[in-house]
Fold this sequence. Notes:
disordered N terminus; 10 helices; three-stranded mixed β-sheet; rod-shaped; four-stranded antiparallel β-sheet; alpha+beta; Serine Threonine Protein Phosphatase 5, Tetratricopeptide repeat; Immunoglobulin-like; 3 domains
Amino acid sequence: xxxxxxxxxxxxxxxxxxxxxxxxxxxxxxxxxxxxxxxxxxxxxxxxxxxxxxxxxxxxxxxxxxxxxxxxxxxxxxxxxxxxxxxxxxxxxxxxxxxxxxxxxxxxxxxxxxxxxxxxxxxxxxxxxxxxxxxxxxxxxxxxxxxxxxxxxxxxxxxxxxxxxxxxxxxxxxxxxxxxxxxxxxxxxxxxxxxxxxxxxxxxxxxxxxxxxxxxxxxxxxxxxxxxxxxxxxxxxxxxxxxxxxxxxxxxxxxxxxxxxxxxxxxxxxxxxxxxxxxxxxxxxxxxxxxxxxxxxxxxxxxxxxxxxxxxxxxxxxxxxxxxxxxxxxxxxxxx
Length: 336
């Protein structure tokens, strides 16, 4: 019954109000749609589906701005805790209908209800004072809604609950803060903007290199030159092994030579010493081969090392002394 009375009031008010006549007259289709949306909005309100009710009231009063539809929207906004919007909806009714004469009963009832119910909203409205320092002309938002620069530092009505304030300005780092305020409470939101540093914004790439910047790069050796250095070490290793082998066999040959010198006269030796003579000759030959290998290894290694990178070639030019012992004596070879 209540819903039917409400809808009847909307239609009657829409047809007879002088305020409507002064504006664009809605078509019959507009009136029918507003009436239907109003009925749906009221049903959603009574079912406590306030979000859906708000959407439907908003659509209905945009099609036809009757104060009865705006009143339904204001009451729904109160239920949702959107007191700032509810306050403005009530004020809209009071502002537009308060100066009208000869209001229809439906519109007069809507005006009286708005004047009465707005007092309860005023008692619950909270406020916040937003201040931003560090920049002269910051861009500020409250819950992602813009805040006029003229309102900074002054009380601003807000719904009770938690809110987020953001501020930014060219050349400054953005700042964000949150605050909580209760019914009829007063909160402060203070932000300070710091000047942006010299670091480039994310995604712009590294800073340009100046003359005073020293960059370090990993050294990548040429594989061909690096392999030559390795071959030099291998050749020197072979040469060293040949040197050791030649020295050992040379010492054995010298020992055999001393034994034969005691048993032989001149160039003649007893036949019993034939095996010692053969052993002496073999050791002498092996010693010679060892020293030849040693000499070849040193020579080849030096060639490879000298063709390596310059830093490695310097080591190859350092003084080097290599001792040797042969069948006929000993000594040193080297580079100075």
